[in-house]
Structure to design on (416 residues):
């Protein structure tokens, strides 16, 4: 308990210092207002602070995992949005304080000899105070917009991939690809249902889901079984697990409880009608020709879990003309797939979410995700092998998206 209390005290100190600093701008800006307006702003400023302190106390002295993942996400989002936004104000006010300090020193050293009051205080700039408060409002408003509009602004991405060894009977095969559903984060079931309908309206021949059905607990998907069980395709729906599907980030009462959670996740895939591939493969045959669908359990770079056994999943597919791999984490492509399995034609993955924040204008794309992942969104090619990274259907942590909308991918395969 002591480390938790120490963490609480540190966060309380940081939050209160930030709030006190920004409040100085509030005092300056509201100085000439009517008493009612002035008091509404000044007292209202502290309401988010009180809520934030209450949230920190709740997180420290209660068990937040007794509550839904969605509720926890909203608490964290509220804290991050409030204080991340205020840091912009702090930066501007700090510039103002540097200016005031320099001016104070100038008065102290150069005016004191003429009999003026040494080191007289310099008032805070009203212009910079207003700028600081505006700087707080802009990121906060942007994050709010990302929740209200961006979280369910589903976009269809179409990609053509040409393969020299694609069997003629699979010419023009249309693959629907979704990833990172994170059902425990959803807050608008109607909008989610609309995203599923958009995918089905594309009429894909085959659908891949590349992991992270839930955030932590298999029970999160319960309310969305009746939504995602509508995901159907003539040649089937195939899925794999992502790093969040194993419950590794949840404090379980026992290892047996954790194992049962994963069993329940497997059952959820069955109820959805997904063909879950746990380090195994399936063949799809048409006109006497076939392609292999290889499903690898999560294999992540860095500190992420490595449950995947690609050698096991791959074994037996050697003679398939075309091999398509489902593997959640794109770092798997460089780390293992390209080095050891040069005949895997296309790998489908997700995981990055495109950081749920970025800019995409024509061929230009940028996101903080690119500093963590070499391949983070869209199509990549090395030699004759391809990797497609889906930006994700859902969201995690921050319940929204800014400039990086949720993605429904249609990959069409053609003979080169």
């Amino acid at each position: 308990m002591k480390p938790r209390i120490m963490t609480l005290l540190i966060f309380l100190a940081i939050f209160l210092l930030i709030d006190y600093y920004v409040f100085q701008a509030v005092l300056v800006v509201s100085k000439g207002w009517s008493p009612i307006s002035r008091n509404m702003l000044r007292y209202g400023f502290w309401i988010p602070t009180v809520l934030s302190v209450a949230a920190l106390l709740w997180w420290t002295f209660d068990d937040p995992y007794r509550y839904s993942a969605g509720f926890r996400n909203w608490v964290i989002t509220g804290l991050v949005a409030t204080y991340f936004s205020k840091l912009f104000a702090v930066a501007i006010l700090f510039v103002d304080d540097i200016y005031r300090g320099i001016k104070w020193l100038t008065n102290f050293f150069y005016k004191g000899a003429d009999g003026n009051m040494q080191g007289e205080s310099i008032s805070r700039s009203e212009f910079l105070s207003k700028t600081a408060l505006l700087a707080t409002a802009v990121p906060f408003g942007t994050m709010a917009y990302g929740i209200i509009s961006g979280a369910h602004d589903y976009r269809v991405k179409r990609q053509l991939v040409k393969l020299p060894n694609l069997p003629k009977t699979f010419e023009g095969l249309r693959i629907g690809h979704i990833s990172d559903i994170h059902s425990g984060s959803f807050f608008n079931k109607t909008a989610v249902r609309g995203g599923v309908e958009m995918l089905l309206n594309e009429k894909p021949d085959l659908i891949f889901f590349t992991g992270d059905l839930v955030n932590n607990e298999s029970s999160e998907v319960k309310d969305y079984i009746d939504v995602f069980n509508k995901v159907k395709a003539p040649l089937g729906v195939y899925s794999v697990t992502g790093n969040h599907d194993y419950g590794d980030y949840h404090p379980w009462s026992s290892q047996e409880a954790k194992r049962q959670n994963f069993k329940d996740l497997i059952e959820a895939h069955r109820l959805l009608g997904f063909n879950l591939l746990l380090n195994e493969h399936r063949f799809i045959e048409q006109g006497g020709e076939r392609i292999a669908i290889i499903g690898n359990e999560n294999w992540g770079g860095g500190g992420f879990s490595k449950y995947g056994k690609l050698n096991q999943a791959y074994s037996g597919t050697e003679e398939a003309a075309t091999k398509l791999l489902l593997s959640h984490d794109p770092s798997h492509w460089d780390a293992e797939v390209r080095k050891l399995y040069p005949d895997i034609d296309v790998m489908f993955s997700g995981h990055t979410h495109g950081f749920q924040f970025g800019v995409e204008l024509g061929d230009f794309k940028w996101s903080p995700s690119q500093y963590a992942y070499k391949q983070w969104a869209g199509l990549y090619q090395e030699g004759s092998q391809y990797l497609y990274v889906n930006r994700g259907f859902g969201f995690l942590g921050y319940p929204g998206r800014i400039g990086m909308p949720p993605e429904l991918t249609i990959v069409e395969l053609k003979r080169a």
